[in-house]
Automatic annotation (TrEMBL):
GO terms for molecular function: metal ion binding. This is ABC transporter substrate-binding protein. The lineage of its organism: Bacteria, Bacillati, Actinomycetota, Actinomycetes, Kitasatosporales. It comes from Streptomyces viridochromogenes. Residues 1-26 form the signal peptide. Keywords: Signal, Transport.
Length: 323
């Protein structure tokens, strides 16, 4: 069983779209540009990893992403061309457990520098939280649920504190792998961590005093973020955003919306908003986008990680009634 596919099936596969201006200027998905350059060549698994590599590496790195903008990261299957791209590079930066095809390819590669972000911060088991309200559906998929509950939630980049911990680890790995530019990597890492610390402060201050602490999402991608800022995430469809919730689950959420002052049902840019809008219409709620930031497309509310996270904060403040 592909545990990760069920655990975080976040973005439906969409047509590949062009990168917005200002995003990953050093990033290219063209394998010809990925390896054997005069720079430190880094292959990143998907956007949050590529963003770190680009920010920390600066002018010294050539970053390529295995996942195209608009492509669902979880279903990525590595091509022969991408395998060659990896072999020609100096380092791979990935998040083990998120993309099984990437994990296998990196492990089998002859790369000397393999940076697994999952080892640079603590990943939690959130399976039990996500299955807490699934009722009868949980019994129907008891075997799957049991496996998923032992899977670690990889959405660490949505928590600025955890993302900063990963950034520090990536910076240290770059310094070791490319010592000629270690001073610059160290300086860039410190600058990035400082920005992430400021973002954390923005979230903490912005969400400190709100009318409600509960928000509804299409699927359970924001548990780290919720835990960091004293909020509670309720996912409509649990692990799979494309699955239809049971009538009992819909009724439960409608009752909870009234009890907890929930005003908004969040959905994701690349996932159908049908279920979210159905619940919102039935319960008299609004809908809005909360972006899990697995990729940047022309539909994203921002050109990079920080802009989209700030957009997420604005959406949460509005939905929760920040004072």
């Amino acid at each position: 069983m592909n545990v990760r596919r069920h655990h975080i099936s976040g973005l439906a596969l969409a047509a590949v779209t062009a990168l917005g201006a200002g995003t990953l200027s050093a990033c290219s998905s063209d394998s010809a540009a990925a390896g054997n350059t005069d720079k430190f060549d880094v292959v990143a698994s998907f956007y949050p990893m590529a963003f770190l590599a680009e920010q920390i590496g600066g002018d010294h790195v050539n970053v390529s992403s295995l996942t195209e903008p608009g492509q669902e990261p979880h279903d990525l299957e590595i091509s022969a061309q991408q395998r060659a791209q990896l072999e020609d590079s100096d380092a791979a930066l990935y998040l083990k457990g998120l993309q099984p095809s990437v994990d296998e390819t990196v492990e089998q590669s002859g790369l000397k520098t393999k940076i697994d972000a999952a080892t640079l911060t603590k990943l939690e088991d959130h399976g039990d939280v996500e299955h807490e309200h699934e009722g009868e559906e949980a019994h129907a998929e008891e075997g799957h649920a049991e496996e998923e509950e032992h899977a670690r939630d990889p959405h660490i980049w949505l928590d600025p504190v955890k993302y900063a911990e990963v950034a520090k680890g990536v910076g240290a790995a770059f310094e070791k792998a490319d010592p000629d530019h270690a001073a610059d990597y160290k300086k860039n890492t410190e600058a990035l961590v400082k920005k992430l610390d400021a973002l954390n402060t923005q979230f903490a201050d912005g969400l400190k005093n709100t009318k409600s602490k509960v928000f509804f999402t299409n699927h359970a991608a924001f548990i780290y973020l919720a835990e960091r800022y004293g909020l509670t995430q309720e996912a409509i469809s649990g692990l799979d955003p494309d699955s239809e919730p049971s009538p009992a689950r819909i009724k439960e959420l409608q009752e909870e919306a009234k009890a907890d002052g929930v005003t908004t049902v969040f959905y994701e840019t690349l996932v159908s908003d049908k279920t979210a809008k159905t619940l919102a219409d039935d319960a008299g709620l609004k809908t809005d986008v909360l972006d899990p930031l697995e990729g940047i497309t022309d539909k994203s509310k921002g050109d990079d990680y920080f802009e989209v996270m700030e957009s997420n904060l604005t959406a949460l403040k509005t939905a929760l009634g920040a004072k």
